[in-house]
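During the first year of the project, the team set up a workflow for recording each protein of interest as an amino acid sequence followed immediately by a discrete structure-token representation. This format lets reviewers and collaborators read both layers of information side by side without switching files. As required by the reporting guidelines, we include two representative entries from the current panel. The first entry is reproduced here exactly as it appears in our internal archive.
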Amino acid sequence: MLSRTLKGVTVAGAIAVLAASSTVAVFAQDSSPAAGEKGMICVIVPPVENPFFGAMQTIAADKAEELGYSTTRLVHDDDANKQLELFESCIAQDAKAIILDNAGADATVAAVQKAKDAGIPSFLVDREITQEGVATSQIVSNNYQGATILAEYFAELMGEEGTFIELTGKDTDTNAQIRSQGYHDVLDAITGMEMVAQQTANWSQTEGYDVAEALLQQYPDAKGIIAGNDTMALGAQAAVLAAGRPEIIVVGFDGSDDAIVSINQGELKATSLQPVAEMALQAAIQADAFITSGSTGLPEKQSIDMVLVTPENACGYFQFAPVAEGETSANCQ
């Protein structure tokens, strides 16, 4: 059962909730109408080349289809102007709802308001916007909590001493800021640790490699790298290995399968797993509830706690969710 502390809702017991998410949700569904019978839902996300966003879109759209809707799956490429065009297209097609992982906390408000004015509710996942009362739901990971548990483990691996580098996400993304704040609230209090460089790699694996490569040349004594997502961390890990420095501690954030494979191979040391499956499922379920009854029965802002993934528990997760009890993740086979 979901356990929440509301207004800035925290969903406790994320592991158990995720494991049960295929059968337990806020709203139980007794039947599965034919896809398209209840109208069309747009599912708009950043580039799906990032497995995090690909999984988010697939899970949300598949659930919406299971609930009786057709779906239009779209990608905004982190471009707010393109995002607005996609919203306008969904409005013109008389979408019943829009599920969105947005292209900027400030820039997205106008698009969501435009849909609301047209009578189309928006259900945001992963990334918040800066204004309340515009979207119907904003369902996000507890990024601050995920960042603090990762930073604590990173400090432990570092022996609470030495210099480190931070790779941050896009400056326009509130998640990048929240994660960095969580890291620093932990690490800045440890007198033996010092950040020697902080630079954005824009959530990109390629940029993660290039930035880490340059910074390691500039700061050859750096002992660790903490990244704002897994793709940047994987790029940094590749740069570390290319430099012949496998002892450098690299940690990421998201809990992607690629990151978990790297952890199992002894490369990345940890990641904070975002409950993508639960966020995506809840977006579709709450959209259906609102379309059907005019209410989700929940506050707009909802937050789901994250899980620290290390070599000790990595085989228990696959596709951003726990595997069934007694099974082993495909990432470990």
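The second entry, processed by the same pipeline in the following quarter, appears below.
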Amino acid sequence: MHVKLPRPAIATTRSGRVPPRRDGAAALGGRQAGSATIAYPQLRRRSPRDIACARIEHMFVQEPMERWCSFPECRRPYYAKGLCRSHYQQQLLGRPLQAIRPRSSVRANCDFTGCDKRAVNRGLCQAHAKQRQKGQPLRPLRPFYGTKGPCRFDGCAKPRVAGGYCAGHAAQYYSGRPLAPLWKPKVGCDFPGCEKRHFALGFCQGHWRQLREMRPLTPLRGRSGRIINRGYVLLFEPTHPNAHKTGYVAEHTKVMAAKLGRPLAPFEEVHHRNGIRSDNRPENLELWARGMQPPGSRVSDLVDAALRVLKLYRPDLLAKSVFDSKEGAEGTK
């Protein structure tokens, strides 16, 4: 820490000049006046550094001072306003000053009947003290069950959430409803022998439709093994490698897979040569691959299509092109 030292004062005359130095007698502590010598006590001049150090030491000197509470017969240490901490809190809250009860080394229980918790606030435990602070009548505390373990309701294995109950039974308990087993979602159909999943009113979708149309409940027909969708024949074979998630597989896909001796790859397709989608004879099917070559059409198919158009609309151009091709062949010979 940097300490700024005071500048020593220099005695000057009225004219502002420094007086001349005294003679040797004055330097030795005395002054000679005529023949008599007047002696002065030896005074040691303190340097500015010594003065600054003395001031710093005085700042850190701690004088022992014991102050006690001004309340009668209170031997607690002083805190503020002439009082100890406890009496100062009483004065700060506007309460009359009272003697502080001595702390007992024996653990005291709550003064409320039947409460075995530790007293922390004027003879009451923390929960009963909060009831008194809110102006409520003191009442027994509810037991604490924690959140570990199953629900307290008989037969319920769900984890505890509040009051020892699961979320469903806690909602029943705190809303004042009688505790009852929780509703469980239904899984299967109630019709005997029906293994389909539940849809509504205890039945699957098929039996629920029969019930809604007020028809007698009968066993449902099994899924048909053959349907036609957009002209394609579909077979119900869920175990086929190329089957859709609905369990159906296209008949032309099945025929081509049997012909190749392997299931078709995702990029392979089966096309009908004659354009009839229900004609699934092996000789009418051909295998195409998507993404294996650039998109387009076969050149032979394009040539055949061009000839059909020319024969229909411009047969003269077709005859001229044939004549030119013949002349070119004769000229090369």
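For the second entry, the following points were noted during internal review. The mean pLDDT is 80. Residues 145-180 form one domain. Both points are flagged for discussion at the upcoming steering committee meeting.
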